[in-house]
Specification:
Elements: E1 5-11, E2 14-20, E3 23-27, E4 32-36, E5 41-47, E6 50-54, H1 56-61, H2 67-97, H3 105-114, E7 133-137, E8 140-146, E9 151-155, E10 160-164, E11 167-174, E12 177-183, H4 185-191
Antiparallel strand pairs: 1-12, 2-11, 3-10, 4-9, 5-8, 6-7
C-alpha cells in the first residue's frame, strides 16, 4: 500500500524599506559691526637746552681783561715785586754782614744786580688749557598722551536653520505563504 506524500511549498515574507533622507541647511548671516576709534589727545612740552660758555679766564690769559681786574692784577704784581725786592736786599745785607766767611759777596751781588735773570724758554699755550668753561643742560621733553577706548557696536544676527524631516516607509513586499498538499500515488500514476 502506498502512502500519500505531503508536499510543502513555503514562501518567506519580505519587507521593503524606502528611506528619504532628511535635509538640513544652516546659515549664519554676518553680524553688523561698526568700530570707531577716537583720536588720542597728545600734549608735548619742551624745556629748551641751555649752553653757557665762560671765556673770562681765556681772555685774562690773552691780557684782554676788565679794567678793574687789570688794576687788581697790577697791584698784586707790584706788591709781590716789592716783597721780592725786600727779601733780596735783606739776603744781600746778611751776606755783606758775614763777609768774613768764605766767598766774595760784593762781586756776586754786583753781577746779580747788573744783569737781570735770563728768561725761561718754554712753550706756553695762550689761552691755557681748559680755560674756556662750558656748562650744558640738555633739553627735556614731556609727552602726555590720553587715549580713548574704541567704540564698538555689534548687532549679531540669528542663525537661519531649515530642516526637512526624512521619511522611512516600511511595507510588506511579499507575504509569507505556506502550501501543503497531499499527493496520492494513484493519482500520479493515472496522470502519467
Amino acid at each position: 500500500m502506498k502512502m500519500p506524500q505531503l508536499r510543502m511549498q513555503s514562501q518567506m515574507a519580505q519587507i521593503e524599506i524606502q528611506q528619504t533622507p532628511g535635509k538640513q541647511a544652516i546659515r549664519q548671516p554676518k553680524a553688523d559691526i561698526s568700530i570707531q576709534q577716537p583720536k588720542p589727545e597728545i600734549r608735548m612740552r619742551t624745556i629748551p637746552s641751555i649752553l653757557t660758555i665762560d671765556q673770562t679766564k681765556a681772555f685774562e690769559d690773552m691780557n684782554l681783561m676788565n679794567i678793574l681786574k687789570r688794576n687788581e692784577k697790577f697791584a698784586q704784581e707790584g706788591k709781590q715785586a716789592v716783597l721780592d725786592g725786600m727779601a733780596r736786599r735783606s739776603q744781600q745785607g746778611t751776606e755783606l754782614m758775614k763777609i768774613e766767611h768764605k766767598g766774595k759777596p760784593v762781586i756776586t751781588q754786583a753781577v746779580q744786580n747788573a744783569f737781570p735773570p735770563m728768561k725761561r724758554l718754554g712753550i706756553t699755550f695762550i689761552p691755557s688749557p681748559f680755560s674756556v668753561k662750558t656748562n650744558y643742560r640738555p633739553s627735556q621733553l614731556q609727552i602726555d598722551v590720553q587715549t580713548h577706548r574704541p567704540i564698538i557696536n555689534a548687532r549679531p544676527k540669528r542663525v537661519e536653520h531649515d530642516y526637512e524631516k526624512g521619511e522611512v516607509n516600511i511595507r510588506m513586499k511579499q507575504y509569507q505563504h505556506l502550501t501543503i498538499e497531499a499527493v496520492y500515488p494513484d493519482k500520479e500514476a493515472q496522470n502519467v
